[in-house]
Design goal:
By secondary structure, the chain is an alpha/beta fold. It has helices at 34-43, 57-60, 63-70, 146-157, 172-182, 187-201, 211-217, 219-222, 226-237; strands at 2-8, 12-19, 24-28, 46-51, 73-77, 89-91, 96-99, 102-108, 117-121, 126-130, 133-134, 137-138, 164-167, 209-210. A six-stranded mixed sheet has the order 1-2-3-4-5-6, with helices on one face. Strands 7-8-9-10-13-14 form a six-stranded mixed sheet. The protein is globular and about 50 Å long. The structure holds zinc ion and fe (iii) ion (FE).
Amino acid sequence: MKIKIISCLKDNYSYLIIDEESNIACVIDPSEADPIIKYIEKTQIKLKFILNTHHHYDHVGGNLKLKEKYGASIVGYKGDKERIPGIDILVDDQEIWIHKNFEAKIIHIPGHTLGHICFYFHKNNSVFTGDTLFSLGCGRIFEGTYKQMFDSLMKLKKLPINTKVFCGHEYTLQNSKFCTVHDKNNTNLKNKISDIKIKLNAELPTIPSTIKDELECNIFIRTNNLETFSKLRDLKDNF
Ligand code: ZN
Ligand code: FE
């Protein structure tokens, strides 16, 4: 199984998960269709599924064009069936979605939106977190409560520490500045920032991160206290 990172729009990432045995692929959160089509045409893979973490335009913008062109089926949270364009397969919290070698556990992680889910490809040690957990940050709370977002991050924290984290945006450097202000003496964070800068200077994504790195460096999941989390989230909104 190979994961290919596709840059979309200004700072979004879509991800192609490719089963090299069958040449079948899924795409996570296609912000727009064209960069995905470009890669598919170059490699002759068959796009079978579109998996959406939530309904925002920068995560579903390519749904209909890709569905029409490749006949791909769209998988999304059942609670968002009215909001995810072209949705075909409704999934629920804790369900395991399986197609041949693809196997993802669905975890409902509301807060950024009420219907936000992540796809945890447990056999591949990879989780696709959309706009809930970013590297060194977390999403804005648009629809849910602080408690919902906090609980959602707690669920992600419990994944095995070697799990790779693939999130929806390249916000890592900007996020790191906020973490530094509130966690000045964190050596792991300092090391992570050097690593981020090396990647960005080479025009590479800072993604994937890992649950281990996030536990060590991400101020939003380092706290186990809802009140502290809520304060940090407010401060970040005005940072
Ligand atoms: Zn979003
Ligand atoms: Fe987004």
